[in-house]
Amino acid sequence: MTQGRMQVSQDEDQRGHRITDVVRARAGKERPGPAEVVFSLDDVHVYYGGFLALRGVSLEINKHDITAFIGPSGCGKSTLIRCLNRMNDLIPGARVEGKILYNGQDLYGDDVDPVEVRRHIGMVFQKPNPFPKSVYDNIAFGPKAIGMQPESMDELVERSLRRAALWDEVKDKLRQNALALSGGQQQRLCIARAIAVSPDVILMDEPASALDPVSTARIEDLMGQLKQDYTIVIVTHNMQQAARISDRTAFFNTEAAEGTGDRTGLLVEVDRTDTLFTHPADRRTEDYITGRFG
């Protein structure tokens, strides 16, 4: 038993070192100058009916950064990212308390149109979800739906596909059904579809979890390019992925809710990725990153 535990500890240490090495290789590459805040969250609580899913989250998300949300299953990462474009409004019984500011405006103000919010803050989901339409129509659908009038829809489609690093692979398949594409191509198509309506922010909920390593690498490379023009928030269970691509990382955990057997999510800490992975302020973060969690 002692020998087995020693081997586990060695594996955990190796895992921690691998992630640390990735982060150190990226250290010092952050954008210079003061950061511009896109989202500011203050004491945010999220409920599903009477269940408190996420408690007391306060953090800021900066413009042109990739911010990663990490943590164990059930800690509220996906719940929070859906709050950022009001997708939780579509879930019966869901409600948000506290303050979420988007470019200084209350995202949940009475005069705010959730549909308009989602035009500025796009979403890419865990499983690729192209429409059962042609590649071309997938891209053109959003602009048509919101009444955009580009000078040329053909140019808008091409530009969106190019920005999603997909044009060269599908330029001869624009009229083919998008469902015939590979999983990785479908996910990049969904990113292109989000880009087509000219958002400011792209939210990604585990966008590569269902993809093979090659497709995952392409998505990660694409994110690195897109952050020059967009603010990106990603939920990921992959520690190496967070270390490779993100500028800032927020670690979430769960704890027993007072008076119930339920567990509620909470934000443990948020910091620059190199700092959080190499010098976390909380022991729970260190345990999770190195594999000693739980």
Kindly estimate the percentage of residues that lie in beta strands according to DSSP: 15-25%
Structural class: alpha/beta
* CATH topology-level fold name: Rossmann fold
Distance between the termini: 18 Å
User: What is the spatial order of strands in the main beta sheet?
Assistant: 5-4-1-2-10-9-3-8-7-6
**What's the Cα radius of gyration?**
20 Å
Q: Mean pLDDT, as a whole number?
A: 88
**What count of structural domains?**
1
Main beta sheet, described? 10 strands, mixed
Within CATH, the superfamily carries the name: P-loop containing nucleotide triphosphate hydrolases
Low-confidence stretches: 1-12
Helical proportion? 25-40%
* DSSP strand count: 10
**Overall CATH architecture:** 3-Layer(aba) Sandwich
CATH class category name: Alpha Beta
Shape: globular
Query: Which series of helices and strands comes N to C?
Result: HEEEHEEHEHHHHEHEHEEHH
Number of DSSP helical runs? 11
Describe this structure in words.
The chain has 294 residues and is α/β, with parallel strands linked by helices. The protein contains 11 helices and 10 strands. It has one domain: Rossmann fold, CATH 3.40.50. The chain has helices at residues 2-26, 77-83, 114-120, 135-145, 153-163, 167-170, 183-195, 213-226, 239-245, 273-278, 283-290, and strands spanning 37-48, 51-62, 66-70, 94-102, 105-106, 121-124, 201-205, 231-235, 248-256, 263-272. A 10-stranded mixed beta sheet has the order 5-4-1-2-10-9-3-8-7-6, sandwiched between helices. The radius of gyration is 20 Å and the shape is globular. The two termini are 18 Å apart. Mean pLDDT is 88; it is low at 1-12.
